[in-house]
């Protein structure tokens, strides 16, 4: 039995209102589609799955829909093992799916999984650690430039891979031209960063990033040690300037260690606590931005993914 959470408010699903009917047809005889218009509706699906013993949950929405589903299921399931999750790429960016190598449309991914569950085709199973960032479950969390980039991205007239690439080129062009756009984007923030109980001596950071996946977007393997140690995630903290980032780009893209005075930490860790010297911390998890007094990150556990 498979239950699919279909977020009709996800941008790609709003553009394709007929998608729900197609997904229901794929699920015929083996699963149920749940159109979730609210947070409470996702909790209802989690309760339904726990009560019925449902073993597979599809999430047809963006990265935010996936982290919301995992968080709510963990809240309902408590100490019980979570069902397997199918990441169906229903968002505009699908950063998590891309980083994990999951390709296709929601329809093709669900069709493959249904056939696999019926024993009629191959089924990929992967266990991946997930982070708990202030109690929310996801795969990538960070602060400083990653939040500034997302804020600018969401403020743009449109969203999607094309817009993200445009912004990347804009930052690169500003870096080479020496204009303010890149300088402001990478302007260091004053933060107190504690790693596994020990504070880092530095207090200014341009990039803060913790991941349980290697590929953070478009093939960039900025956290290649994400799978190195059970119970740990790759944490990166630096004060690299835009021009220094450009110089390190080949290493960032190919997953090689960066040795630079401005790279203050890059290794697997178990626990990170971040506070701001100027008030609240603006942070993100899988593309969703939040503001809290503190950002507390650790590994929650494993989640099995199917595709």
From TrEMBL:
Transmembrane segments: none annotated. It holds the Pfam family DAGK_cat. Residues 3-117 form the DAGKc domain. This is DAGKc domain-containing protein.
